[in-house]
């Protein structure tokens, strides 16, 4: 079961598929750099550094999952998207993954494009789409922000895990047991549990930041609440 951890090790996916996703990840990160430059200012730049450092530190702490031999850690996509936005957030997670692969051997270097695609790109994108939708319907209170953070973090982890299933379908080289549907179900189940832990960490962190400095929460600044419905005219008077 340890081969089902989110970080993909060398040899699990074949070279051609890994190469294609490396190119896709590089192109996507280049686009994130171009879009993220519009958001960077004196407030967001230091926040991005703090977010990357926090994700790096928390990812070093694993927590056990009910299934024997499996542990989880914060992926960080939802946390980064909430605090520094989707473009800079994806870059923060990608930087953490690069350092982990090159310095600590966490995830194969040859699989770096796959890991970045799943955790930095898919995870962050799924989280931000949910954040954008939830913050338009939920009250912008500590409870509403906490629910948004928890749900977006949980879902982003499961989405990232299914990215691996798709990549394994394209070029898996290691027998992980069972058919593709069974693999998808196992990955979703395990990472649903991991997502609960991630959701709690993300909700606690973001709620704490919002309580002290709400101006540092990108999602609260950038996402406008839904406009109230227009009041219909009565008796021809507007």
Lay out the secondary structure.
Layout: H1 15-39, H2 44-59, E1 63-64, E2 71-72, H3 77-84, H4 86-104, H5 112-137, H6 142-171, H7 180-212, H8 218-222
Antiparallel strand pairs: 1-2
Helix pairs in contact: 1-4, 1-5, 2-3, 2-4, 3-4, 3-5, 3-6, 3-7, 4-5, 5-6, 6-7
Query: Can you count the helices?
Result: 8
Low-confidence runs (pLDDT<50, min 5 residues)? none
Q: What is the overall silhouette?
A: globular
Can you give the mean pLDDT? 86
Strand order, largest beta sheet: 1-2
Largest sheet: 2 strands, antiparallel
Give the helix proportion (percent range). Answer: 55-70%
Describe the structure.
With 238 residues, the protein is mainly alpha-helical. It is 68% helix and 2% strand. It has 8 helices and 2 strands, in the order ααββαααααα. The chain has helices at residues 15-39, 44-59, 77-84, 86-104, 112-137, 142-171, 180-212, 218-222; strands spanning 63-64, 71-72. It has a two-stranded antiparallel ribbon. The model has no long low-confidence stretch (mean pLDDT 86).
């Amino acid at each position: 079961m340890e081969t089902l951890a989110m970080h993909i090790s060398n040899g699990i996916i074949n070279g051609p598929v890994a190469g294609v996703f490396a190119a896709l990840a590089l192109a996507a990160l280049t686009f994130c750099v171009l879009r993220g430059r519009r958001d960077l200012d004196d407030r967001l730049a230091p926040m991005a550094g703090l977010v990357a450092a926090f994700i790096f530190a928390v990812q070093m702490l694993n927590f056990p999952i009910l299934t024997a031999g499996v542990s989880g850690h914060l992926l960080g996509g939802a946390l980064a998207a909430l605090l520094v936005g989707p473009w800079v957030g994806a870059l923060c997670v990608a930087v953490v993954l690069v350092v982990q692969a090159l310095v600590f051997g966490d995830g194969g270097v040859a699989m770096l494009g796959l890991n970045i695609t799943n955790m930095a790109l898919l995870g962050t994108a799924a989280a931000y789409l949910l954040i954008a939708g939830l913050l338009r319907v939920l009250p912008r209170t500590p409870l509403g922000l906490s629910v948004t953070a928890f749900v977006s973090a949980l879902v982003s982890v499961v989405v990232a895990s299914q990215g691996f299933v798709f990549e394994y379908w394209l070029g898996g080289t290691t027998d992980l047991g069972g058919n593709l549907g069974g693999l998808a179900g196992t990955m979703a189940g395990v990472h649903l549990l991991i997502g609960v832990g991630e959701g709690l960490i993300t909700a606690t962190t973001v709620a704490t930041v919002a309580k002290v400095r709400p101006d540092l929460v990108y999602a609260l600044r950038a996402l406008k609440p839904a406009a109230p419905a227009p009041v219909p005219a009565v008796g021809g008077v507007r």
